Amino acid sequence: MEILIQLIFSGIALGMIYAVIAFGYQLTFATSGTLNFGQGEALMLGALVGLTCVEDLGINYWLMIPIVCIFGALQGSFVEAIGVRPAIKIKSEFGWIMSTIALGIIFKNVAENIWGRDDLRFPSPISEDPIPFLGANILPMEILVVAGAILMMVMVEWFNRKTIYGKAVVATSNDRDAASLMGINTGIVIMFSYGLSSLTAAFAGVLIAPLTLTGATMGASLGLKAFAVAIIGGLSSGFGIIIGGLILGITETTTGFYISTGYKDVPGLLLLLLVLALKPSGLFGKTAIKKV
Amino acid sequence: MKINKLLPMLLAVVALLCFPLVLSNPYYIHLASTILIYIILLFGLDIVVGYTGQVSLGHAGLFGVGSYTAGVLFFHLDVPFYLTLPAEIIVTAIFGGLLALPALKVIGPYLAMVTLAFGTILQILINEMSFLTEGPLGIKLTKPMVFGHEASEKEFFWIAAIAMLFALVVVHRILKSQLGRAFEALRDSPVACDCMGVSVYRYKVYAFVISAGFAGFAGALYSYSEKYISPNTYNNELTVLFLLGIIMGGRKSRLGAILGATIIVLLPKLLDDIGLFRIVSITLATLVALGSILAVTKGITTLKKVSIPVAGTIALALFSLWLDNITDWRLSIFGVMILLVVYYLQDGIVGFFRSFYSSLFTKKVDVFTESIITNENFDNIINDANTKDRGQNILTIESILMQFGGLKALNLVDITIKRGSIHGLIGPNGSGKSTMMNVLTGIYIPTAGDVKFENQSVVGKTSSEIALSGIARTFQNVQLFGEMTALENILVGLHHTFESNLVDVALHLPRFTKEEKNARQRALGLLKFVGLESLANEEARNLPYGKQRMLEIARALALDPNLLLLDEPAAGLTAPDIKELLVVIRKIRDHGITIILIEHHMDVVMSVSDQISVLDFGEKIAEGVASEIQSNPKVIEAYLGGSAA
């Protein structure tokens, strides 16, 4: 029983990370109808840049976070400028899918060449002594992950709802052409959403890094599973991705423990296939009416 | 086939088979065999990517399934080579079908992610199911046995060459048949495809299954060729490499697949040699820079447009000089190549040369010789509808309610349509006319109410089932299969006349050749019926707007409908075009086909309709013959507002 509770807690922490990355998918999908297939690589780069700041430059973990966030925003804008904008211009879906995949591959390869192929340990910013709770041991870092993830999403939501720039984002996601006619520079809004999306991913990277190992290959499976979360929850539901993240995180940690760590990714991906086969708009998403 | 086309092909085959005799180094022969195997896979991948227009990131997984089926059968059961081949194709095709099932409702990025997830699951399974696959240790095989001894590198090359030629013929025939046309049609316009009786879902699954079969075939040959398989081979990078091959070589082209496979096999070898890479990248940068300077000075393009590729290639050249080891940067170079191909070489190498070639020479117009229709008699071209019960009800719409959230787009509408009549359906914008069309053709499922066509309910049936039961339609915003020719568009409509299966198609059995010949003749006849026979080989997207509308009508007639729904056929037409349209509509009615006509041109509706129903805000406000409608105060109010005095 203690083990199960412990698995659930680490599942929650993992699930919140998935939710944050999935949140990033939602941001770009809302404004431009496109997704960054290299979202996992944005997370990986964030974690590795963070590691360099902490280890080599001796910057304090908390001071490093804003640096990583700025880096993430720049990286996301770069992806948008190189990979997405030309594709939107020529209305090629194939184009942005392939180019964001290509950029993901390039980022991963560059990271391998800079930081090496081995996984690296990320020093924990806070105490690593577990806190006993309901008979289980919880790492303080896990609590920090959950709090950080929620804070990130609340801040972005606040920005979208309360600021004039956020309203431009919301307007663009409702109707890009109409927003553009109202004088909103939708190109900048889309670029901004990519920046914000990679920012959240990079932030998620430095949150999760102390709990796992960091390395060039950490992004791929995280990105894919976060997509599963975005689909399960629905690409338009903020509440859905948190539920989806928790479902996936907990099934993953329990599968890893009770069956085999080799199989831990399988249930989430099967769930993705199942949801897409039965309800493609996600468990909490709204179905759009197709017009002919 | 004509001799001048056959000869170069024959020469190419002979050259291919003689290759190992000329170049006897086993390393090169092995490399060539690998190219042949990748060609087979790319043929299959092209069906999904090029023809149906879906992005598959799961083909490395399918390739792995083929490899491992061969490996497992060999390792555990010692099954001989010639028996494993069909097994691999079938097993992988089944996996392809499994992959396609969640593709039921998803498109574009969703499908790409689904295939990525599927490929990842396959890779995990191969890695973890050690009892079957030996896990990370991998499986060792031997080359297949031929004439009592293990095949040499040279003999295996011939096996692979024969396999590739076989795959080439089969894939080419599939893509030139009704199957290939269905694949292309569902990419260009899924809605129209369904409404032509070609189920988008079913053909998407077919495409994946056939494509997976080729992937399995290639995978099996690969495991025999390498003599050792391990899970790490079948990763996502391989998938991306396959996609790079297809888009770089050129989609929808066998030659493109051959070029693409050659590039993706040889490229990594090229990248092993830093000296060679430096020469190539510097040459490339020089060529691109010179070409751009030439293009800008001649005013073909602007400085801004060429700045990115020029900067990119120069950066690549500088990068190559700075590097001392290229192997580590291989994936980045693949990535850069994908970016360049996606934006600057969209149609691949083959597409580039094709457009280059056609801009040099004016397009040759194929003269049709197969036409046998000489007179203006279309009796065997348009099948007469059942006219026995003329005047009886063919379609009854009973209290249809169509609700979108709180909006009632159709509110308890009743309409009956008489067999053999032209029934006009009019109403101001947003009155629910097009919604009605979509309900009748199964695109929307009504919230309540029933639609009976020839005494059978169509509610709940899929669009393609409804189409096959005899309701054909055109679309308000033209939905042609743009990249297909006018003739091919009609042939998709004639899809229902084909009964031949994959084997008939692959082997060109008499059943298929006969059906294809008949269909082509009828298609040509239908084009003549709407006056488009001279444009048979023109791509539909290049036709003028009025002709596109006519082509849509001809395509709908190919379904042999009893009921034809025309959704604003006169919209955007010029006055002479409208005259022509009226003639065609009357001719169709003369063949006993019932017509529902939605139209805003009142003169058109009033002149041809036997009966007219008027919709306003989702409700039927009037019904009757033209003169009654014209004097009906409610109708006048709906159109002009205010109350009719």
Provide the descriptors you would attach to this structure in a database record.
heterodimer, A: 292 residues, mainly alpha, two-stranded antiparallel ribbon, 11 helices, 73% helix, globular, B: 645 residues, alpha/beta, Rossmann fold, 2 domains, six-stranded mixed beta sheet, 14 strands
Q: Report the biggest beta sheet of chain A as strand number plus sense, adding barrel if it closes.
A: 2 strands, antiparallel
Helix content class of chain A: over 70%
Residue runs with pLDDT of under 50 for 5 or more positions of chain A: none
Task: For the record, give the distance between the C-alpha atoms at the N and C termini of chain B, rounded to a whole number.
Answer: 73 Å
Question: What is the percent of helical residues of chain B?
Answer: 55-70%
With strands numbered from the N-terminus, the spatial order across the biggest sheet of chain A is 1-4
Radius of gyration of chain B: 29 Å
Question: What is this structure's SSE topology?
Answer:
The complex is a heterodimer of chains A (292) and B (645).
Chain A: H1 2-32, H2 39-55, H3 61-89, H4 93-115, E1 120-121, E2 131-133, E3 136-138, H5 140-162, H6 164-174, H7 176-181, H8 186-208, E4 213-214, H9 218-233, H10 238-258, H11 266-278
Antiparallel strand pairs in A: 1-4, 2-3
Helix pairs in contact in A: 1-5, 1-6, 1-8, 1-9, 1-10, 2-3, 2-4, 2-8, 2-9, 3-4, 3-8, 5-6, 5-8, 9-10, 9-11
Chain B: H1 3-22, H2 26-51, H3 59-77, H4 81-100, H5 108-128, H6 130-133, E1 139-140, E2 145-146, E3 149-150, H7 153-175, H8 178-188, H9 190-195, H10 200-226, E4 228-229, H11 236-249, H12 254-270, H13 274-297, H14 303-322, H15 330-344, H16 348-360, E5 393-404, E6 407-418, E7 422-426, H17 433-440, E8 448-453, E9 456-457, H18 463-468, E10 471-473, H19 486-493, H20 502-507, H21 510-529, H22 545-557, E11 563-567, H23 575-590, E12 594-598, H24 602-608, E13 611-616, E14 619-624, H25 626-631, H26 633-640
Parallel strand pairs in B: 7-12, 7-13, 10-11, 11-12
Antiparallel strand pairs in B: 1-4, 2-3, 5-6, 5-8, 8-9, 13-14
Helix pairs in contact in B: 1-7, 2-7, 2-8, 2-10, 2-11, 2-12, 3-4, 3-5, 3-10, 4-10, 8-10, 8-19, 11-12, 11-15, 11-16, 13-14, 19-21, 19-22, 21-22
